[in-house]
Amino acid sequence: MNLCLPNPRLTSGRAFDVTTADLCKSGYKNPARNISMAMKRQVFDRYRIDKYEFGYKVDHLIPVRLGGANSMNNLWPQPLSGEWCWHRKNKLERKLRKMVCLGHLDLKTAQQEIATDWVSAYKKYIGDLGQPR
User: Fold this and answer.
1) 126 partner at 20 to 30 Å CA-CA among 34, 87, 106, 117?
2) What pTM, to 2 d.p., does this model score?
3) Under the phi-then-psi rule, with left for phi > 0, alpha for psi from -120 to 50, and beta for the rest, what region is 29?
């Protein structure tokens, strides 16, 4: 099973109602940082992945650093390996947060683009693999 992108029927994205000013404030703490073991099990069950299957981590589709919530609509099993795995998404998350906090990108736009198709957002804001921007 390849889960570079989550199933949009199961994980469409969900964010807290947070302002850019609050999000970009030094020391901002999103209450969604930690995902309980019960929620992790629920995510794996929804995606029909055996809890003993390795190679995935439960991740926020709309990232915590962009106001993402601990909602089943925002959690998915993200692959730990492969061309489009967690480290590329984390790089995109850092880039989008920086752009939002510098006023170069609207927070809602950043949340929407990463929730709709984070791989396309990566290509748009960072560049295609081997084609850095």
Assistant:
1) 34
2) 0.88
3) beta
